[in-house]
Amino acid sequence: MDAVVAKPQDYKSDLKPIWCPGCGDFSVLAAITRGLAELNLPPKDVALVSGIGCSSRLPAYSTLYGFHSVHGRALPVASGLKLARPDLTVLSVGGDGDGFSIGGNHFVHACRRNVDLTYIVMDNSVYGMTKGQASPTTQADWTGSKLTPEGPGVAPFRPLEMALSSGATFISRAFSGDPMELTRQVCAAVQHKGFSFVHVLSPCVTYRPEQKGWRELVHGDFTEPYTDRRDAFLRLLDDDGFTTGILYQGAAAPFQPMPRATQSVADLGDQFVI
Amino acid sequence: MDSLEEFIAHAVALEEDSAVRFDDMADSLDVHQNHEVTDLFRKMAHYSRLHLAEAQKLAEGMTLPHIKPWEYKWPDKEPPETPGMDATHYLMTPHHALVMALDSEKRGHDFYAALAATHENPRIRELAQEFAEEEAEHVALLQAMLLRYPAPPPDWDEDMDPPVSVD
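YS: structure for the whole thing
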């Protein structure tokens, strides 16, 4: 693809998203397609791997190679794909339930392993696809679900702190209502060498309609990425959960598998005792 | 915005983004069988593309600068004529759609009017004035259309059989 030829529409499939009108995930899809066009990456060179949930439908709406995988297991699939095909640009997408609860363990270890891929989490603090239950990032006193009539009663998971603790080398937060900043972060994350985590505040207009008010709460105060983890940790102690920008960008080398001689499928089979 | 080329690049991006967003919103409403609003959004996308063609015609013979999406100099977070996706609702009526379109055109008008009033480059001032006048015509047109689509009753979004409900 030549320079300036790529258009965001080149990365969109003919399928119409079935998200609720007004859902923040529309803007994330737009930011990803806009970002890939800006980076001029041919669709055949990019793979998009998701888990399960509303936001995990995203691969179907793109012309990229897609893998709509198992609940919480987008990151193992994406990591394996990147290690097997390092020439591909690999993005993984999903929601807060998929990524921080069912896939919480994989999230931690993907940060630690630092494979060169980008993980975009659309966080709306609710399980939308299963009709509105509390998720790992739901506030302790949220009483919107009949399953937790007095609220989940548990402090919300802190994705940025967890990513930083676990070793992610690129950490940012964006808001779906600011799609140009989100596009900037997607581009920076894809260009980063190592595991990049983009936390997107993406309102659920159906089960958390009050999240439309996030527009008034977000503030872009992560102005310059920290390169020292201690500084980033200190900054996070003052974070209200609505600060956007690139928080941290480290320089640790991405994980590379040990070089091995090429093996055929038959050779691999011989290693298993039946 | 320093040069005529940069101004035209903004005009092109403004209409292009607006057309894409109206189409996205039409797709979204189409999925929910809201055909009346779908058709209206499609029309808006069509008009944006007509204006895009005009802006692109102005660019003939010029080399427009490549501007990164986040480096355009918009007054707000998005191009001024791009309607906010979060204002859509599956039960929205033509009245709501027209109000959204009207707001978009008003923002477009204000953007060009401000440039026409303040820019140092006389050619940019002249073109911005021309575009502002066009946007003012669109505003008047939409205001006239709105008379045919008065605001719905306050319970317009009440649904006794919603497609999704809290379990």
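YS: worth flagging: Residues 169 and 251 of chain A are 7 Å apart (CA to CA).
IM: good catch. Also Chain A has one domain: 8-270.
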